[in-house]
Amino acid sequence: MPTRRSSSANWKTVIPADGVYAGYYCQAVNATAPHPFAARLWQEFIYSDQGQIIWLKGYVHPARFNDLATRKVLPKALLTALPAPELYAKAKFASLGRRRLRRH
User: Fold this and answer.
1) Roughly how many angstroms between the first and final C-alpha of the chain, as a whole number?
2) Which of 12, 40, 50, 62 fits as disulfide partner to 55, beta carbons 3.0 to 4.6 Å?
3) Which residue has the higher pLDDT, 20 or 71?
4) Residue (of 73, 70, 36) closest to 52 by Cα position
């Protein structure tokens, strides 16, 4: 069994200033899911305030960010840990065409 080193690792998130890549997250409910109502409940949870804040804790800009910020329900510690707004303006999303080219 592998041994575990000290759990006091010092992790740091770094976002390059010269290139910010963004990607989309997609969710769906399979029409033939064995428990479609459970899948729908999951969808409701991930779009709830609590679910959106969990995304934010992982440094993902949630879909309902502006709504949560307007209602002042975002924890201050999470807001101060986010990248500067100027970096969001520089974010580049891969087009479907570019994504197809990378597969070949």
Assistant:
1) 40
2) 62
3) 71
4) 73
